[in-house]
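This part of the workshop introduces the protein records we will be handling. Backbone structure tokens are a discrete shorthand for how the chain folds in space. Once this layout is familiar, the rest of the handout is easier to follow. The record below serves as our worked example for the rest of this section.
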Amino acid sequence: MAENCIFCKIIKGEIGGNFIRRKKDYVAFKDINPKAPVHVLIVPVKHFASLENADDKDKLLLGDLMIAVRDIARKLKISESGYKIVINNGEDSGQLVFHMHIHLLGGWQKVSHWKV
């Protein structure tokens, strides 16, 4: 865990979070600045700044995070209508918190011109 990382502080309970799920290796909580009707962050407990900083030992963790996305989408009832996942990787991608995390976005009503 990194001392000044806001996500590490949320994971440790030093800062409140609206949790959807807590597991040994990851947590999921609602984004405080949502960009969609459903906007959840899935965050590994292990601190690494971005996907670029993951190492080969993180393969299982990264796979578990993808399964978590699927399961949380089902729990939140957005799996059938569709959802988007985003992993920003570095400053130029728009990453604001440098603790790797996955954005799960969904809950939009169907719009014929909307494409993912």
Q: What stands out?
A: The first strand starts at residue 19 and ends at 22. The CA atoms of residues 1 and 47 lie 5 Å apart. The mean pLDDT is 93.
